[in-house]
Amino acid sequence: MTWMAWTAPTAAFFIGIGLALSALTLFELRWPSHKRRGFLPLATTRGDRFFIGLLSAAFIHLACLGLAPSAVLWATGLSLLWAMLVLWRG
Known about the structure:
Layout: H1 8-30, H2 46-67, H3 72-89
Helix pairs in contact: 2-3
């Protein structure tokens, strides 16, 4: 395990993703998701919107690191807002 720097933020990230996937699984078992159309140009389920939100967050952070490396907290805030919007209205 020396190939990766396992720091507290890295662990928190992976624990957060694991908890989110566990919650999505429980939601799916309790309230099955149906495809719906929002502002995204395709019909999506809850899991699709979660994946799109994660992928978008990665691109937002990469753009931030390329344009303004000191503004990572702003990118995190923007990513959270975007992910909530995609999950809610996407």
